Amino acid sequence: MLEALSGFSGIIGNYADCFIQLAGDRHVQSPRREPIPLSAGVVGSRESVQENRVEVLIRKDDLAAALNALFKAHPYEEPPSTFTRSSTAGR
């Protein structure tokens, strides 16, 4: 996913491509319908998969294009994502 977001992310002062990556386990119960082939799991079962959580800064003007790139590149039906507005953005 970093490749998909690299053109939009991580500008802090004179630095570019800044991000935080944390390893962890994703725990989900598979949907009641058949998941797409790249999804983990058997319908109705609880699964655990190792993944990386990535946090990046994205300028407000780039957010729509960054989201399109993320959805295009992510192997799951719905990439987990959270957006928080930074009070220091652009400083």
Radius of gyration: 15 Å
For the record, give the distance between the C-alpha atoms at the N and C termini, rounded to a whole number: 26 Å
Helical percentage: 10-25%
Number of strands: 2
What is the ordering of alpha helices and beta strands? HEEH
Overall pLDDT confidence: 77
Q: How would you write the strand order of the largest sheet?
A: 1-2
Strand proportion, as a percent range, falls in: 15-25%
How many domains make up the 3D coordinates? 1
Structural class: alpha+beta
Shape: elongated
Oligomer: single chain
pLDDT < 50 runs, ≥5 residues: none
Largest sheet: 2 strands, antiparallel
What's the helix count?
2
Task: Outline the fold blueprint.
Layout: H1 2-5, E1 19-29, E2 46-56, H2 63-73
Antiparallel strand pairs: 1-2
